[in-house]
Design a protein that fits this description.
The chain is mainly α. It has a domain of 201 residues: Serine Threonine Protein Phosphatase 5, Tetratricopeptide repeat (Alpha Horseshoe), CATH 1.25.40.20. The chain is built from 17 helices and no strands. α12 runs antiparallel to α13. The radius of gyration is 46 Å and the shape is flat. The termini are far apart. It holds the Pfam family Ank_2. InterPro entries: Ank_Repeat/CDKN_Inhibitor, Ankyrin_rpt, Ankyrin_rpt-contain_sf.
């Protein structure tokens, strides 16, 4: 009851245009906190969408120093907690009113199936919920070609025939953005032959009867043409396109014969210059590497010659030393023999005291 009274107060204040913006802002903060405490998710979403700054509303504290998140946690309002988490998910921008009001649409647009499942299963959103443009999460997923999200939405029973304010179904949105796999899934066509479907035959009236999403869908209610008039208009427009293309080809041919330079010629010339520049840079790099390799090979030859010279010097030094050692050993052996041959000629005198 308190929440309803607060919402009525907002409507009347906007209707009579009372000049008390500051009072209204603080009053909105109060009822946002009340909605979070009571777990009234729809009221909570509506109030946030009416405020200028959703970030300020979520961060504002009451007299007890509690913000919206604290109140939802204290009173175990899981739907409010889940909604805030979904709002924080989109780029950390809590000031985005569309993100705050429709987190399921954001998850479907980004192809985040886990977040979408969580929001639906926790009861935070309804899978057929519409945003300000009348689009459902299926419209958002179809526009981006997220097949897994579409398959799950179809599985849980989402309505694929809902139209947005432009009169488009999810299938029409997928066609507009050329997501053929999404079109195949939404239309339930098991055999979707792209070539047969989109072959242009100007003699086939059915081709002009079959059409995609019409232009100027924002003012679709103002169109009063019948289907036959639309078909005739498409035929005339197609014939005009064919005629203009033929005239364009003739004009381009005449322009080239007169020596004119087309944008395509300039583009080719630019690509050729860029290719030549790249080739020149690669050739210079190759020449540099070749000279560097030759220099390294010369250094290697010098080092090898130096190593050979040092090896020869070491061999020359080691050979004389070996000869000297052999001579010394021969002389010492001769002296030993001489010492052994000496025999005393007389006896040994011993002195006695």
């Amino acid at each position: 009851m308190r929440i309803r009274a607060c919402i009525l107060f907002i409507f009347f204040s906007n209707y009579f245009n009372f000049n008390f913006t500051i009072i209204l802002f603080f009053f909105l903060l109060l009822i946002v906190h009340l909605a979070a405490m009571e777990g009234h998710l729809h009221c909570f979403k509506f109030l946030l969408s009416r405020m200028n700054s959703g970030t300020q509303a979520l961060k504002a504290f009451n007299d007890n120093g509690e913000n919206v998140l604290d109140l939802a946690q204290r009173f175990f309002k899981h739907n409010i907690l889940q909604f805030i988490q979904g709002a924080k998910y989109e780029g950390n921008d809590l000031g985005d009113q569309e993100t705050l009001a429709f987190p399921g649409h954001v998850a479907a647009f980004k192809g985040d199936l886990e977040m979408l499942k969580k929001l639906v299963e926790e009861g935070v959103i309804n899978f057929n919920e519409r945003d300000d443009t009348g689009s459902t999460p299926m419209h958002k997923a179809a526009g981006q070609g997220h097949i897994e999200c579409l398959q799950w939405l179809i599985k849980v029973g989402a309505d694929s025939n809902i139209t947005n304010k432009a009169g488009e179904t999810p299938s029409d949105v997928a066609k507009r953005f050329a997501h053929l796999a999404a079109v195949k899934l939404l239309e339930g066509l098991q055999k979707y032959d792209i070539d047969d479907e989109y072959d242009i035959d100007e003699n086939d009236l059915k081709f002009f009867v079959r059409h995609g999403v019409e232009g100027s869908t924002d003012a679709k209610d103002d169109l009063s043409l019948s289907e036959s008039d639309k078909t005739d208009a498409r035929i005339r427009a197609y014939n005009k396109i064919t005629e203009l293309r033929h005239l364009l080809e003739i004009a381009e041919s005449n322009y080239k014969h007169l020596g004119g330079i087309t944008e395509e010629d300039l583009k080719q010339k630019k690509e050729q210059l860029e290719s030549e520049k790249t080739i020149k840079e690669l050739q210079d790099q190759l020449e540099y590497e070749r000279l560097r390799r030759e220099k390294l090979e010369c250094q290697l030859d010098e080092y090898r010659a130096e190593v050979d010279q040092l090896r020869e010097t070491m061999e020359k030094i080691q050979t004389p030393n070996f000869m000297d050692v052999e001579d010394d050993s021969c002389e010492s052996s001769k002296e030993k023999r001489r010492v052994k041959k000496k025999v005393p000629s007389a006896g040994v005198f011993v002195r006695r005291y």
